[in-house]
Specification:
Chain lengths: ~280, ~270, ~270
């Protein structure tokens, strides 16, 4: 170590630190290098808006997949966000401390359950129920939404809880001093103050939902059509990549990279919005 | 105590990783990776198990992924042997040497609770084209047909569509990525119909007869059942070394007997 | 009004808890039956229909190890650089932004990247090495973030004392800061392990799905999550599938529990 010296160590560590950036750049470079020329050649309108995905005959329209990803993500939001935020509010504002100390870690622990387990239970328990009582093949947008919602719930709950906990107690005390009940102080004052953090949590949850692959492949049915109802089977962008990745070559492979580009851009956008929202909160507080 | 636990854990991990790393460098081992057709995969695994039991220094690993993965990985070298169950090999496979090691029928399967037991070729075409949408039109109950298919790179699917001609898979079809998954999907859904390798049929699903012909070994060998395809093992150039040893074993009497015993049809 | 609202919120929370607990109990109830000594320590037969899951246990243990061997030095090194060797500059903000972006990339894209780069282009094939490298990039952000938190939490006074005794920055880092940041770093490592164990999409496409015990870094491995996925989806053996899932869930819960335990030790020590 004396040989290298502190200055030398600094450079070594800088190199190490740049490795994180390097991996990101390599991935981005790869995906864009393969995918972007394809999008430009085929034309963004044709690629993004055509409903014909038939690699064998040279048709690469990913519109059905975009719609499917959108529906499945929004559906997951509808399931996960209300429950997650409700849980965060309850745990942080109304639940007795000792109970919170048990429930919160339990929920966070259970968030570690792998997606394939959720997916399989979706196939075994959820899809037959949907098929029997609501119709359709069971393997559907609805099934995928419910499974995804449950999977992103802990993320939303935990980040929202942090956002709520960050609201200074003086806000709550001030409201109550003015005569508000606990509930009134929460929904009129605290929630507004924690708003950006909660929104950030939902956006991050959306990012996770858009990127989920295994559970969706198992329960969404993977049909290559634009879903017209939640009971229809559909194929998301991620499922499309996973199903065809192993053997796609040439144009087909580039089309999958192009799908990756779309995913990458969407998720980067979501993450940037979320971190901007979080930073605004930190700046304002 | 905590720190010493971490330290010993790290040392143990480092030691095992070093051992693995050196093992990889030192040996000029001939390990054979076989990848591709999910229809042949279970049989390849059994053959590999038996081959390795007979030859102590052989090392064979089997992967799935579908016939197109078989072709691609043989071409790229990710696998020494590619498995493809295709009626006609794609143009890029011309660069590979293909050895037919078995034949396999494609069975059309429905849920055991489905009363329909026979379909004509035209009806099959209509179902998978999306023109026939209700079991009522086929003599069954009034339920919408759930069509289950493989992904585009599947040998079973390519062969199915090649033999049947005139099939453009309906967009409504549910897509699953292996023979076994299709079997499970059809087993769980009373109005589903799918196709899979006849060697993989189990009690969970019911195979229908096509034009009156059942999908059995006898009917296939008598050339009565039309949906049949060969199973090719693909290598870059002529098979050599450990890969050749394994392929020879599969073509030998012992290998072909194992194939027949497990429900596939021998090459000849 | 308040009573209604609170009960609704409480119901939602308990409902969430109930669903998650149901999932765990469903898996454990069906799976614990299949688990026995031979299940855990013998090889699978007949593609997993019979026999045990030993190779998958080995694979699940080795793959994160390879990933950590790469990610921990890189991650802790990055964290050390960001906290000890520079101020907040544009470069550090760029590095942090890059790390945050990396954290959000879906696993299938890592799988695609790993498959094309490591498996195909670099010729490593489906192997421990390909899978490990891919997983390393996936858990790098977690390690960097938690290590940074842990290092920042070490009081400035420790460093000052060390410097006043004549130590170089590097000696201070290795002999004073890092040992004190160890529990926090371990938490990050544990979280990374938890994520790596449950990962399926990226692993199938890079580490393969071989049921044989790996003999070298270039051999393919099958992890428990991949094994469960294949057994369950193809209906090879529902009982063994659940058994694998039970072992998998118990492992992940244990790893996460250890992570929480070390994290609480950090917080307890800090408040002292």
């Amino acid at each position: 170590m004396r040989l290298i010296g502190d200055k030398g160590m600094r450079w070594i560590l800088l190199g190490v630190a740049l490795s994180a950036i390097a991996s990101l750049l390599t991935i981005a470079l790869f995906i864009f290098h393969e995918g972007l020329p394809f999008i430009l050649r085929v034309g963004p309108r044709e690629f993004l808006l055509s409903s014909e995905w038939d690699p064998q005959s040279g048709h690469f329209g990913i519109y059905p997949m975009i719609v499917a990803s959108l529906w499945v993500t929004l559906g997951g939001m509808l399931v996960g966000a209300p429950l997650g935020i409700a849980g965060a509010i309850f745990l942080n504002e109304f639940c007795p401390r000792p109970l919170t100390r048990i429930i919160k870690p339990t929920i966070e622990l259970l968030a570690g359950i792998p997606s394939v387990v959720f997916g399989f239970i979706g196939v075994m328990v959820l899809a037959p129920v949907i098929r029997q009582y609501l119709g359709g093949p069971g393997l559907s947008v609805l099934a995928a939404s419910i499974v995804l919602g449950i999977m992103i719930l802990p993320t939303i709950m935990s980040i929202s809880t942090d956002a709520l906990a960050a609201v200074p107690n003086s806000f709550r005390e001030g409201a109550m001093a003015l005569g508000a009940t606990r509930w009134q102080s929460v929904h009129m004052v605290v929630l507004k103050a924690a708003r950006t953090g909660i929104v950030a949590s939902v956006i991050l949850g959306m990012g996770r939902a858009v990127g989920e692959t295994m559970a969706v492949i198992m329960v969404a049915g993977n049909a290559v059509k634009v879903p017209h109802s939640p009971l229809d089977s559909a194929r998301t962008l991620t499922a499309n990549i996973a199903l065809e990745m192993g053997y796609a070559t040439g144009q087909h492979r580039q089309a999958l990279f192009a799908t990756g580009v779309v995913l990458f851009v969407v998720i980067m956008a979501l993450n940037t919005v979320a971190s901007l929202a979080a930073r605004r909160r930190a700046g304002a507080a | 105590m905590f720190r010493s636990a971490i330290r010993s854990g790290c040392l143990a991990a480092a030691a095992s990783l070093a051992a693995l790393g050196l093992a990889g460098c030192g040996k000029a081992r001939e390990s054979v990776t076989v990848a591709g057709s999910t229809a042949f995969q279970p049989f390849a695994e059994k053959l590999a198990e038996q081959y390795m039991a007979d030859h102590a220094d052989a090392s064979i690993t089997v992967q799935g992924g579908g016939s197109a993965v078989g072709v691609q990985s043989a071409l790229s070298g990710a696998a020494q042997i590619g498995m493809a169950d295709l009626v006609s090999l794609p143009p890029e496979a011309k660069a590979l040497t293909a050895v037919a090691v078995a034949r396999d029928g494609i069975a059309l399967v429905v849920n055991p609770r489905n009363p329909v037991s026979d379909l004509t070729t035209d009806q099959v075409r209509g179902i998978f084209n999306g023109q026939i949408t209700s079991w009522k039109d086929l003599g069954g109950e009034d339920h919408a047909i759930t069509v289950v298919s493989r992904e585009a790179g599947s040998g079973t699917r390519s062969s199915f569509e090649d033999i049947l001609t005139g099939v453009k898979l309906t967009k409504e079809a549910i897509v699953q990525d292996s023979n076994g998954t299709i079997r499970e999907t059809v087993a769980n859904d009373a109005s589903a119909i799918g196709y899979l390798s006849h060697g993989l049929i189990s009690g969970k699903v019911k195979a229908v007869t096509v034009d009156g012909n059942p999908c059995t070994t006898e009917a296939i060998m008598a050339r009565k059942y039309a949906l049949v395809r060969p199973i090719y093992l693909l290598t870059k150039g002529a098979p050599a070394g450990a890969a050749k040893g394994f392929i020879d074993y599969i073509l030998s009497q012992a290998g072909q007997d194992l194939i027949r015993k497990d429900g596939l049809i021998p090459a000849r | 009004m308040q009573a209604v609202a609170v009960s609704a919120l409480g119901a939602a929370t308990l409902g969430t808890l109930a669903v998650l607990v149901f999932v765990v109990f469903f898996v454990l109830e069906k799976g614990l039956r299949a688990i026995s000594w031979s299940f855990l320590f013998s090889n699978p037969r007949d593609m997993g229909r019979a026999g045990g899951i030993l190779p998958t246990l080995v694979g699940t243990a080795l793959l994160p190890m390879v990933a950590l061997a790469i990610a921990v030095p890189l991650g802790v090194g990055t964290a050390v650089y960001l906290t000890e060797y520079t101020r907040e500059t544009r470069l550090t903000r760029l590095i942090r932004f890059g790390t945050d972006c990396l954290a959000g990339i879906p696993s299938i894209i890592f799988g695609l990247f790993g498959f094309i780069l490591f498996v195909s282009m670099l010729g490593m094939g489906w192997s421990l090495l390909s899978g490990g490298l891919t997983l390393a990039i996936m858990i790098l952000p977690t390690i960097i973030r938690t290590s940074e938190e842990a290092i920042k939490a070490v009081p400035l006074s420790y460093r000052e004392v060390s410097f006043s005794l004549g130590a170089t920055r590097w000696e201070t880092v290795t002999r004073v800061v890092l040992p004190n940041a160890l529990p926090g770093v371990v938490t990050g490592v544990m979280l990374g392990i938890g994520r790596a164990i449950g990962e399926t999409a990226a692993v199938i496409f890079t580490a393969g799905s071989s049921l044989r015990l790996p003999h070298s870094l270039l051999d393919p491995v099958r992890t428990m999550s991949v094994h469960f996925y294949i057994l369950a989806r193809e209906g090879i053996s529902t009982e063994n599938a659940y058994g694998t899932a039970a072992v998998l869930v118990v492992s992940i819960l244990t790893v996460n529990l250890v992570a929480y335990w070390t994290m609480h030790r950090v917080l307890a020590r800090r408040s002292r």
